[in-house]
Every structure is written in C-alpha cells, then in structure tokens.
Amino acid sequence: xxxxxxxxxxxxxxxxxxxxxxxxxxxxxxxxxxxxxxxxxxxxxxxxxxxxxxxxxxxxxxxxxxxxxxxxxxxxxxx
Length: 79
Description:
By secondary structure, this protein is α+β, with helices and mostly antiparallel strands. It is 29% helix and 37% strand. The protein has helices spanning 23-34, 61-71; strands at 3-5, 11-18, 39-45, 50-55, 74-78.
C-alpha cells in the first residue's frame, strides 16, 4: 500500500489501473478521480498504469474504485 503524507499536510497515493492505453484514457480516469472530495491533483500514466493522486486526506479505496469504474477501467489496487 502506497500513501505518504507530504509536508503541506496532503496525502499522495499511487494506484494501479488496468486498461489505460492512451491519453484519452488518462484524461477519463483523471477526470473522474478529480471529482472526488478532497482531491487536489491527479496524474494518470497509461504506459505504466499508475495514477498518482494528491488529496487532503487518505481517500476511500471504494470511492476511487467507483470513479475508475465510471471512467470505464478497472482499479487493480494501490501500487
């Protein structure tokens, strides 16, 4: 499980997402996750399947899973 607290009080978590293959995929996943409460930034990388999320607090994995599902992809878990 990867989650770290930054000095500014934010939490950075890296998730693995299956099925992303292009910039459009990255945008879809980033857009859905960024709508979750407390999310400050999202960076999805299709080539690695990693999505880095910076948020005010640790996010509920089921909320992240629902957002990724809404984008049409599968959350494999935390990296």
